[in-house]
Amino acid sequence: MFIHLHLHNEFSALDGYGTAEQYTARAAEMNFSHLALTNHGNVAGAIKWQRACQKAGIIPIHGCEAYIVPDISRKFKAERRGHITLLVTNMDGWTELCRMLTVAHLEGHYYKPRIDFEMIREMDLSGLIILTGCAASFLNLPGGFKLLAELHEKGARVYYEIMPHNIEPQQAQNQLVCELSVQTEFPLVATNDCHYVLRSEHKAQEMLLAIQTKAKWDDPKRWSFGFTGLHLRSEQEMFKAFQRLGGFTDAEIQRALDATGMIAAECEGFEIPQQDINLPSMADDPDKALDDLCQTALQAKPFSDPRAYEDRYRVEYTLIKNKGFADYFLIVYDLIQYANEHGIMMSPGRGSVGGSLIAYLLGITELDPIYHDLSFSRFISEDRVDWPDIDLDFQKEHRARIVEYIEGKYGQFNTCGITTDSRLKGRAVLNDVGRAFRVPPADIAQVSKLIDTKAKRDTVKTMLDGTDEGSRFYAVYKDAARLAMKLEGQLRQHGLHPGAVVISADDLRDGSRGNLKMQKDRVVSCFDMEDAEYCGLMKLDILGLVTLDVLVYCKELIKESRSFWFHPESGEHFVWKDSPGGYMLPKEGKRVDFDYDKIPFDDPKVFAEISAGNTAGGFQISGRATTQLAQDMIITEFKDIVALIALVRPGPTDSGMTEMYVARSKGATYGQQHPIYEQVTADTHGILIYQEQIMQVISKVAGMSESDADKVRKIIAKKRDLAELAPYEQQFVDGCQQMETFSAEQARAFWANLQELGKYGFNKAHSTGYAVLAYWTCWCKINYPGEFLAACLTYDEKEDKQRLIKDAYRYGFTASYPKDGLSDPLRWTIHDRVMYAPFSEIIGMGETEAKRAAGQGPERKTRMKGFFNMKPVVNQQSDIGKVLKAAGVFDPERMFTTEEAGQLFKFVIDPDLTPTQDSGEPGADYPELRKILLDLDPVYAAELWFDIPGEFVNAISLPSGLITEEHAIAQAFKGPLCPDLKDCYDCPLGDQTGKGPVGPTMGKYNIMITGEAPGPEEDEHGWGFYEGAPAGKLLWDTLLNRQARKGKWNLPREFFYVTNICKCYPSKTRTPSHTEIETCYDRWLQHEIEQMQPRIILAFGNTSLYAFTGEKGGINNLSGKVQWNERVRAWIVWCAHPASVKRSGDSQYFDRGMETFYKILLKAWGR
Fold first, then answer.
1. Is 324 within a domain?
2. Which of 105, 282, 709, 924 sits CB 3.0–4.6 Å from 695 for a disulfide?
3. Which residue range or ranges hold the Uracil-DNA glycosylase-like domain (predicted)?
């Protein structure tokens, strides 16, 4: 009996080919009884493997081929890593393996997660079987034989692996372990080191290696295994392969094959158990603590029908208590309390939790579920076994504080993130395979754009089969197309879930719930969300929402400009709603704070504005499709906004449901169904647009439980196999007959119709939470338009600024470019019905320059208190003062043409909206500006006149090409160096960035500095190596203030052209992938280099190293070295990234690189 005990699937990322389902299906065909999974350095695929094995009727064996070194504390590039295969026989072994892998990832990671000999010596091996691994066995490391002897003395179960691969290293390994087997009496075991399922898939696995190493398919030196046969071989195939290899008798071969069965028998008793969630205890009696909080809230809230709320509360509380969820709610409540105490705003509700009265009482949501008719059973039901899922939106700028609070309260290793799996899908696999085959990017782009879920072309195969362009592509690039189809759906890499935060009472390093690892500077579980839940890990989704930042800043502006009053007779914060000027201040009353949750949902002006299509700045409703639908629907009450948000989704729109709703809302007749159905859909014109409605219909028409109704809803909504619905259909038919609502024939017809209508249902609680935010934003715009639109212009990068400004004029406000004494460094302000842009809206103005311009720099002094407690004064003869003067900062009457404004500012005020003032002939100010360009430090000219007209170029005669002279600004002024950068979505980073790609900044000399990718501060401020961020501060402090023999270096930012290899902030993945680096280089950096023609490049980090050389690591070893790079025709000074100093606390590599850069500059300048 032979069993495969050494096998790699897709979770040996870009090394092993084949999903768990593909392997187990093939194993079942071959009548294997057991199958092991031993991926490199991880067990991330273990639970998926177990499920697939169980489904195929195969007994799973869990294990790992770990990377091992003599000592993990030693890290050097040339180290030799060995392999050791570990198989699990019981829960103790699983826990020990995961505990060891946690150490490997958190402490031993150096290129790969490594364990060491001491860990093997100290660990409890009673639940593990050790196999010696492939030709890269630990036996071949220094001290390997000694470790083997210690394992022998310890009584460990060790087997020597032999493999039938006809390559010299493996033959030598086989001979070695045969000799050792005689000496130590450890038996031989036959393994195949499987890396793909079928023999024919070896090319697919080779392509994975090519993608991993960025190699070209026709490169004779590209890395591959150099032999085949790593498929799921049968016992007969294994026997014959060993015979062909030679060196073993038939009896020895058979004993080694049979040994696999004995090992499998020892392992077959273990499966990874599904575990209960173990949360921190929040009270001695959490049920009572929860009840006390809710009872207090019930008494405090002025409900119109207290009995109804008390009854609803009792139903919810009883279910939560019976299911043991009290601590969960108390944890969330504690988080809400922290946010409230620190002035951090939360969204009114997100997801199905909006249907919970208890969540409303605790302040988790602001949605009254009875008022809004929201279902609790969509959130928690009697028979539902999984834990509730509460998603929380906080202000985006404070999300990190929330996560830090959680880690501080519960412990660093009692919390973690969740892993996500990124797969080779659609466009991504075409790009990867096409690059390896040298397919022109234009040809790949032409067919990639045809992959379209709506058109049912959501895979490479359906695109190639279903389009003429795809057929032509296949005919020309057949090999690439075939491999792309073969690889589609395989795992490419792991990522970090953007919002998930796990909280546990257990120290997650103990191994019982899998292992921990680092993912982009964050400790995460090795499992994805589904598998983490299986292991008993409870997660909260902690998300950042910029709309909340808008609302908070709007509130600040309103409070500053108008204040709020409480009138003793009204009982409301908002009074005199019918007055012409909106909310007037009463003559009597007291000042109070402003609360969004006090806003009533019955303001007809809000509905009228949305119906008129005036949706700019409105949350989730400002898009073109939603605006048009709002105009078609005609919004007359709050529930219409809820429906609007649900109906604009692709499903209802594409299916015709939205069009049907609009027609019926305007009076179109339709056939009536059963009275119960009509009652449930009374507010939605007989259409099931909410998931909760589907559940209500199933429950009320057929008497089915809410839990079963929820299961049906899930199957329909997620478009799963209709076979899953079959048992419920008969239950529905029988229930209808018992309830005497439908005959069997009518029930089946109704069921079929229900399936179709229910495909596109939206979560009503979620839609209601969004609708509240939409209402609040529109209410603010109508009642406090200047303040709201100023807040939108400050924070909401997705909104079109011209559209917002136009809206401001419609409300009787005007907008102004930055003005001295009135503008803030970074935020829009409002004075006397004028919205003033911040200084950061001047092209090229980063945060540092903006703050200097607003009075926080060394050239400023305070003259009088203003909105931000100072009115700045600028030395107008300084360089920055001249630039500000050119931008009209000191001239309150200064006007600009559209062309002028487009050259100076990041937005343009339509001149037709500007009060009429005679500013002279167009371009009258050009001579002055031309003089400023010639007199100023070129950095300010470059930053402020990025798109300068050609006539200015003619006025500048600066020489180029030599480091000893100033770089020709005229060369850069041929046009933007990165045109259309803001619209770039060529790689996945475009979906991660917060405020869009970060472009370059010009400098005085043709010297380039390349970072890796923007960090959060750079993303926020649009400025590479932003001075307020740790990396930027270290860099510029070093260049300005480091001491040399003749004084400080004094190398300001203005000397250098500063850019990043990748332009988008990788907020989820943290480190750009090689694909993303290549994409950004080809799309942007190559163009920058061609235009700017640098002669010296200071290149930071491994991302720069890969971009310029293709080397995947080693920047520390190169740091301080200078190389000529023929590709860019420039001298590159390599340097460790300044951010690495913060991470490691070791500055030696950074210092070495910077010292070299300084010396090179002195040489270049002839000093």
1. yes
2. 709
3. 1000-1162
Task: Please state, in angstroms and rounded to a whole number, the distance separating the CA atoms of residues 110 and 68.
Answer: 11
Q: How far is CA 235 from CA 187, 267, 736, 1149, in A?
A: 19, 19, 56, 53
Do 294 and 383 fall within a single domain? yes
> pLDDT tens digits for 290-322?
999 999 999 999 898 999 999 999 999 999 999
Instruction: From 614, 620, 612, 486, select the one nearest 547 (Cα to Cα).
Output: 620
Give the C-alpha separation, 1037 to 848, whole Å: 13
Residues 400 and 474 in one domain: no
Same domain, 255 and 380: no
Q: Are strands 1007-1011 and 1057-1060 parallel, antiparallel or unpaired?
A: parallel
Tens-digit pLDDT profile for residues 536-554: 999 999 999 999 999 999 9
Among 378, 404, 393, 298, smallest CA distance to 336 is for 393
CA 152 to CA 332: how far, in whole Å?
A: 52
Alpha helices (H) in 520-566, listed in sequence order:
529-534, 546-561
Are 333 and 403 contained in the same domain? Answer: yes
Predicted pLDDT at 1092: 79
Most confident of 54-58, 675-679, 1139-1143: 54-58
Q: Which residues contact residue 189 at a Cβ distance below 8 angstroms, ignoring those fewer than 6 apart?
A: 5, 131, 159, 160, 161, 162, 256, 259, 260, 263
Classify residue 73: in a domain, yes or no.
yes
Location of structure tokens 């085959």:
437
Short-list 1062, 1090, 1059, CA closest to 987: 1062
Inter-residue contact 44 to 62 (CB < 8 Å): no
Say whether both 217 and 346 belong to one domain.
no
Tokens of 779: 């209410």
Tokens for 183, please give them: 């000496």
Same domain, 1074 and 1159: yes
The percentage of the chain sitting over the pLDDT mark of 90, rounded to a whole number, equals: 58
The answer on pLDDT for 581 being more than 90 is no
Asked if residue 519 has pLDDT above 60, the reply is yes
**pLDDT band at 1012, cuts 50/70/90?**
very high
Say if residue 500 is exposed, middle or buried (CB neighbours under 10 Å; 0-12, 13-18, 19+): buried
The answer to whether residue 896 is domain-embedded is: yes
In 476-619, beta strands by DSSP E:
491-496, 500-503, 516-519, 522-525, 538-545, 565-566, 590-591
The three-class DSSP label of residue 862 is: strand
> How many C-beta atoms surround the C-beta of residue 109 within 10 A?
17
Domain boundary among 199, 234, 267: 267
> Mean pLDDT, to the nearest integer, of 257-268?
97
Number of domains in the chain: 5
Residue 944: is its pLDDT beyond 80?
no
Boundary of a domain, candidates 454, 488, 522: 488
H-run or E-run covering 98:
helix 91-106
Q: How far apart are CA 267 and CA 256, in angstroms?
A: 17
Domain with 875 in it: 813-944
Rounded CA-CA distance 504/218 in Å is 50
Q: What's the pLDDT at 1127?
A: 79
Q: Could you tell me which residues come within 8 angstroms of residue 545 by beta carbon, excluding any fewer than 6 positions away?
A: 347, 393, 394, 395, 396
Tell me, yes or no, whether 1066 lies in a domain.
Answer: yes
CA 740 to chain centre: 51
Lookup: tokens for 212:
């991993």
Please report, for the domain that includes residue 1139, its CATH number. Answer: 3.40.470.10
Q: Are 132 and 256 contained in the same domain?
A: yes
255 and 293 housed in the same domain = no
Site of tokens 């519960």: 410
Q: What is the average pLDDT value for the chain, to the nearest integer?
A: 85
Has residue 871 got a pLDDT over 90?
no
Across 634-655, average pLDDT = 91
* Cα distances (angstroms) measured from residue 774 to each of 543, 618, 649, 706, 1114: 18, 5, 16, 30, 50
Q: Say what percent of the chain tops pLDDT 70.
A: 87
